[in-house]
Amino acid sequence: MDRNDFEKILTKFKIASVDGKIDIYTTTKGLNREQYKELLMWFPRTDIDRLEKALG
Length: 56
Description:
mainly alpha
């Protein structure tokens, strides 16, 4: 995914609720490893177990 498109997703991710963040993280197609890592930097560590559960 190009940087401009990713920046739009990142902006939405930053302001989303935890459920919204999980939805974005698990449904967005075309992200590379570094982009997934960048999203994780904005995910609350206290809810990481919810993300892991959503990922299966």
